[in-house]
Amino acid sequence: MQKYILTIMALCCLSVAQGQDKISPERKEAIDSLALEKVRDLSRYISIIGNKDTPFSEANRVIDRAEELFADGSEIGVSSINRSDINYYVVKEYFKRLMALNYDRVTIKWFNIQYISDLELQPDGRYVGVITIYQRFEGISADGLRYMDTTKKDITVYVERKQTQIGGRLIGFWDVMLGDIRVTETST
Fold it and tell me: DSSP alpha helices (H): ranges in 20-55?
């Protein structure tokens, strides 16, 4: 959380210094860093929530933290090598379903996290980009049944101007929120 506060403060300083709604190269670098940091945090949260050794109360606390990373109404896709369709769930429902998976051991790892599209200005004033990740999922039941897959997912990233009050002054800054997580490919 301290990392977010420091990054937001840096973004505030850049906003004050430049006083404009366009993203300078310096600000873009800070925004990209914050977006990738939030994706890495989400990866850790998903591992904790999916881990069957995580106490119920701790998993619920982590779900609350993970939800804070997302824009309202965001959905997360779920796929399987055993079916062709992809199911999408609102963020909280996705995490609750992840916590309730019918495996005795679940391991989820994200790798190759990278931007695939640069931030583009939208008509509503927000910038939108996409970060791609690969997720390795492994579930093992007590009787030895094992399911594994690797899924490529695209995460929409929203960057928008917000304001906060610091020392009685309104300060503008750029905030990063995660959006929908779309499944693009699932393999063994």
Answer: 25-50
